[in-house]
Amino acid sequence: MKEPLAFRLRPKTLDEVIGQEHLTDQNGILRKCVEKQTVFSMILFGPPGTGKTTLAMVLANELHLPYRLFNAVTSNKKDLEKIFEEAKLFPGMIVIVDEVHRLNKDKQDLLLPYIEDGTITLIGATTSNPYFSINPAIRSRCQLFEVKAVTISDVQKALLRAAQLPDGLNNEYTIDDNVFSTIAHYSNGDIRYALSLLELLSLVASDHHITNDLVKEYAKVPNSSISSGDDGHYDAVSAFQKSIRGSDVDASLYYLARLISAQDMDSIERRLLVIAYEDIGLANPAACARTVNAIDAAKRVGFPEAQIILANAVIDLALSPKSRSAVNAIHEATRLVNTTAYQVPLYLRLTPVGLDQKDAYDYGRPDIWHRIQYLPDEIQDKEFYHPNTNSSYEKQLAQNRANLKQMKRTNQLRKLK
């Protein structure tokens, strides 16, 4: 059976690699490795279809070094042990590990000493952020290099190359204008997806003629780099919150739609609740309550109707006044608690020992409660909450606070009484 188009057209030299100039041009680290005929353990991370594994194989070929492929998910310990036996015969053998972030502890424990003594050179490939997903012991023995999403222009270049090369379509197809552009826009920077779609179109094209209509028929949903659990998903979640925080309602709806396409109600629910209380907060407490109600309703009806309810909540939050005064206040208080310990004033303790009743907190005197000093003496004037007065509600809170500040607080409860 014929190999897939994307596999047949894998570059064999750095000059054939499309995109990734920051790694492959004259000042790029991979080019320097080839020029100096040296290599070291590294992890290549970036979106799917950007050529991470291909770059690793190209580097091994250019250095004329033997290499073995190992998939962290599907390969087992026995496969790894076979590679180690081979590596003893060929010191410095490159081991290309796909999905390196999925290596379990047993496999990591096997790898570490061989990486350490140089028996193997590890080149890991992952779509996840290595700072979060890669075991620190592995990460500390590797250099990290980002493989960036390729541009629309790069994808078009790859498609043109595929249409012309003998291992590709070999110039046997008539291809309408804008076909490559349309495929590139559908591919979301994933060359492998683009080539796979082109191959599919070549199979269904009548009279060896690939049209724009054919592209739209077979690529009805653009390729998305977002699926629950990968970095594309977390990037969309991050952009979702930042868009609402920045009051860009259209961007907020766009990223909501991307999250809905992944059918991940759990992430949407959690993020909306955080956004409501972290970014809107005291500027519009009613919006926070409406968000809770909207999430409850959305979960009751489920998708697809839930998207209508969620859109209401997102528009409400995006166009609401914003205040981070509450989150800033608790962060500042937490920082102080984590750096310095202060004693709770004796009269505020649950069961104070040796305290005269006249100096004790009086549960029956609400008229003096607002005159009592509650912070320890060392930080009695410390302020954590700084009101944001861009809403009528928080302006009222700020006014109440100012009025209370006019009253002097004291730790002399006997005098208050």
Summary tags:
alpha/beta; 7 strands; 20 helices; elongated; five-stranded parallel β-sheet; 417 residues; two-stranded parallel sheet
Describe the structure.
With 417 residues, this protein is α/β, with parallel strands linked by helices. 50% of the residues lie in helices and 7% in strands. The chain has a five-stranded parallel beta sheet with strand order 2-3-4-1-5, sandwiched between helices. The protein has a two-stranded parallel ribbon with strand order 6-7. Helix 6 links the parallel strand 3 and strand 4. The radius of gyration is 30 Å and the shape is elongated.
**Number of separate helices:** 20
Class derived from helix and strand content: alpha/beta
What is the CA–CA distance across the termini?
93 Å
Helix content: 40-55%
Topology as a string of helices (H) and strands (E)? HHHEHEHEHEHHEHEHHEHHHHHHHHH
Biggest sheet layout = 5 strands, parallel
Number of strands: 7
Using only C-alpha atoms, the radius of gyration works out to 30 Å
Uncertain stretches of 5 or more adjacent residues:
226-230
Which descriptor suits the 3D outline?
Answer: elongated
Average of pLDDT: 88
As laid out across the biggest beta sheet, the strand order is 2-3-4-1-5
Q: Please indicate the percent range of residues in DSSP E strands (runs of 2 or more).
A: 5-15%
